[in-house]
Design brief:
Blueprint (H helix, E strand, L loop, with lengths): L1 H103 L8 H13 L1
């Protein structure tokens, strides 16, 4: 019986060692699968961050372009208003010069046609 017990015990130990080996292999396989899943997750996260960063850079570029466009429109409006003001100032200066000249002269160069008519009528009937 002791010999039989030794054989049974060796068989139990062999089975136990084999079971432990299978468990170790399973754990190693699971660990490798977890590493691969983690690496894939990291890769996807990096790709997501990269896409988000690119999208944000695109938005930033669009905003800068819009700001530049708005600024150029404002600059053109300022230039146009300045040009119009210069034209108005020149016209006003010409008008003031002409008015001063007219006020200093005693004769009327070009009288209104009705005024001319009334003057000739006054001289005829007068």
């Amino acid at each position: 019986m002791t010999e039989e017990m030794v054989v049974i015990r060796k068989k139990q130990i062999a089975e136990k060692l084999q079971q432990q080996q299978v468990e170790r292999e399973t754990l190693v396989k699971e660990r490798e699968e977890l590493k691969e899943a983690f690496a894939e997750h990291e890769s996807l996260e990096k790709e997501k961050v990269h896409r988000t960063k690119q999208r944000n850079l695109g938005y930033q570029s669009d905003l800068v372009s819009q700001a530049a466009y708005t600024s150029s429109i404002r600059d053109r409006e300022v230039v146009e208003k300045t040009r119009e003001l210069d034209i108005q100032n020149q016209a006003e200066a010409r008008y003031q010069t002409k008015l001063a000249s007219s006020l200093q002269s005693q004769t009327i160069d070009r009288a209104h046609p009705l005024r001319k008519y009334h003057r000739t009528q006054d001289r005829l009937f007068g």
